[in-house]
Amino acid sequence: MDTSRRPHLLDALPLTLAQRVQVLRQRKHLTQLGLAEKANLSLAAIRDIESGLDLFLATAVRLKLARALGINPGVLKVVERPVDDAGGDDAARHLPLLIQVLDDPEAGYTCPDCSERLVIRCFAREDMNETPMTEVKIHCSQCLFRAHHTFSQGR
Ligand SMILES: [Zn+2]
User: Fold this and answer.
1) What kind of architecture, by CATH, is found in domain 3-77?
2) For the chain, which has fewer Cβ within 10 Å, the N-terminal or C-terminal residue?
């Protein structure tokens, strides 16, 4: 096979996790729902990854995704941003807000940076030891503000 005629499969991939997953999914001719089902993940999880809300994948999630996409997990890992990079001091700074959201997700919250509406996502899931936990994600509808925290049961 003459490989010089077309770009290398991986070289041509986007450099963000969100776009990379989307492109790989489309190459497989899968919808978001199709990928979710194939990877045994929730549709919300796929949406969060492709919308850039999730910048770092749990190992189990990365493996499931990679398997469903027919790629090596490293192809995803290389463009992930570790939680510390994404949140860092901000994660701790915004913890009180995240706890408020956990207690009352419907209250309506505004961005601490620009006062625009915050988009709230809470979902229950289990860690690899099947411990129930609630993941709270918030991001601003206007600026780049985002924060998330995973609360284990009883915090
Ligand atoms: Zn904002």
Assistant:
1) Orthogonal Bundle (1.10)
2) N
Q: Where are any strands of DSSP class E within the chain?
A: 118-126, 132-140, 146-152
pLDDT of 55 reads 85
Spacing, Cα 118 to ligand 1 middle (Å): 7
Instruction: State percent of the chain over pLDDT 70.
Output: 84
Ligand 1 is an ion; its neighbours by CB within 5 Å are: 111, 113-114, 116, 140, 142-143, 145
What's the CA gap between 61 and 67, in Å, rounded? 10
CA of 14 to the centre of ligand 1 (A): 26
> What b-and-e string marks burial along 47-82, b requiring 16 or more CB atoms within 10 Å of the CB?
ebbbeebbbbbeeebbebbbebbebebebbeebbee
Positions of CATH 1.10.260.40 in the chain: 3-77
What tens digit of pLDDT does each residue of 40-60 get? 999 999 999 998 888 888 889
CA distance 139 to 111: 8
Q: What is the rounded average pLDDT for all residues in the chain?
A: 84
Residues 6 or more apart in contact with residue 133 via CB below 8 angstroms = 124, 125, 126, 127, 150, 151, 152, 153
